[in-house]
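Lecture 7 notes: from sequence to structure.

We start with a single chain of 694 residues. Read the sequence below before looking at the structure.
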Amino acid sequence: MIRYILECMAFQLLFLIIYDLFLKRETFFQWNRVYLIGTFVLSLLLPWIKIEAFKTTVSSEYFVYPEYLWGMDMSEGVVVAPENSTSFDLSATEIIFYGGMLIAALLFAYKLFQIDRLKRQGEIRYFKDFTRVVVRNSNMAFSFFRSIFLGDQVLEKEHQSIIQHELVHIEQRHSWDLLFFELMRILGWFNPLVYVYQNRVSELHEFIADAKVAKTHKAEQYQMLLSQVFQTQHISFINQFFKSSLIKKRIVMLQKSKSKRVWQLKYLLLVPLVVGMLVYTSMEAKENRISEEEQATGDAQLIKNTKLPQLSNPNQDDVDVPFAQVEKVPVFPGCEDAENMRDCFQKQMQKHIGKNFNYPEEAMEKGIQGRVNIMFVIQKDGSIGNVRMRSPDKILEAEAARIISLLPQMAPGEHKGNKVRVAYSIPITFKLERKEEFGIMENNDGTSDVAFAIIDKVPVFPGCEDAGDMRACFNQMLQRHIGKNFRYPEQAQEIGIQGRVNVLFIIQEDGSIGNVSLRGPDKLLEDEAARIISLLPQMTPGEHRGEKVRVPFSIPITFRLERSSEEETSPQTYEYDGNGLVPFAFVDKVPVFPGCEDSDNKRDCFNTMMQKHIGKNFSYPEEAQEKGIQGRVNVMFTIGEDGRIGNVRLRGPDKLLEDEAARIVSLLPQMKGGKHKGKEVKIPFSIPITFKLQ
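Now the structure, written as tokens:
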């Protein structure tokens, strides 16, 4: 949020600099009005706009993902005691922020009260175009929406020019401009540029009204009238006729010659400025990542400030004993008969991370990387609790939290004859750069896994023995292998399942393929990807520093349902084979969602009502929020002939999210069944539900 605010202010400052240097002295008052209001709104939207053309893209359909790395450092033994907090706690920054908004809102309400009091105490007379309010014993003159407030002393003098002036404000709805900025002052009370914008717009309003009145009233007489300074209420969102700080500027503008039309080209300065801002906002995600040096410095500071011997728990009377110091470490399942429980624990932890690791797609696309420091406590009952993390980005943090949430129940640790809570820490490194020092993972059995991107001699794919560039040939031959053996599962096509399956495997020291892990939107696609990988031939193993090594390799396989060229230029058709199952996209008469009975386009209405149903019943699981779990759950179900929902299938990053998606689907109402070629049929339907932590 702080970054967003700073970006908005930076954009506003640049827009104001352009205005003050090039546009302010021109007589294109209406253009300037549009410029000021438009650029202010634009400054609020630009930080959210990401233009794909300005992002780094990869043209190849199949390409090699950067290999993952993870490691651990037991010498750290870092544990941070849990904090007591409630959902009602506010930080000092939040208290100041909301307190400032409250004060600004109260001041706004007081100003409205002042206007209302003047209106109630004044003499009101209604005219066709406005309402005149005469204020006793006053020299004021201003307008607010359709009301013109005049002091009785002003009425005794020549006041028709003033009336005409205020009517311009009313006709052009200037009060709405000032009210908009007044509301922005409440939301952004700390931003001085909002006040500058409101001041500039207020000046423009007076210039616009003066210019129009001067056409029908003698300019000299009008200037003389302006030169008189009267008293007025200081209310920021009213159009004041007599404002001493503006009198001189208004007289100067009245005497100024009309600007030449050619100077309207100055507004084109806005184009390169906005393009530059869009380039910045589109690329900022890459620039916003914490460097390894910054991460290491921060980690060192975190370790330095943490007491290692033991940490008192404010919620309990006992203490947390660091893993490195506990006498009997917790027993990881599979280590019951191990001679060295501590080493076995670490080995099993490494295997657990390697088995469950999945580099988030969004993080890879945005170039997000870094180290996530995880700290948790193995409770007295062997369960995992008090999980805390420090990371360069929430996306990596969520993946690390998911891995830890999958840890099994353990036998608790003991210290001095008693069961104790054992504090444990481990870093998981998400690395995209091709740096050798981060590309090698040493295994406990003495073997090494060397990333494909940095290995000295890559594995040789059959047919690449004489290639000049072995690495490029490997990638090319693997793509050919996928293309040659690719077969889209028929059931997935019928149901409309598509998406990307991330495949990770290891080319062993003998050249065989092993340790295959997959992550995709549905098991049907995963099984097909596994089948393709199982057909890979025996290869010549990779070598690093003269020794044969295991080489991890990852690649995404994309399953996409595409229409033929004929289908793109003609209506889609579907050959019904009488099996009673017709995809939603092809069925003649879609199921009727309650509320869509009278809709002209029942297909669009179905989709709209489905979105409304999800939005109405959506509830982010608290446990998932606490653990930082987020992602997309692909939901697939069948609408039966009787309109009932059945055969629900889900695929998501975590069971907590899948359960919530299942609950939402279970609340779907009974519908009127769909028909195809005059027969009632079952209709498969799929929809993604995205869970995102803001």
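The radius of gyration is 34 Å. Keep this in mind for problem set 3.
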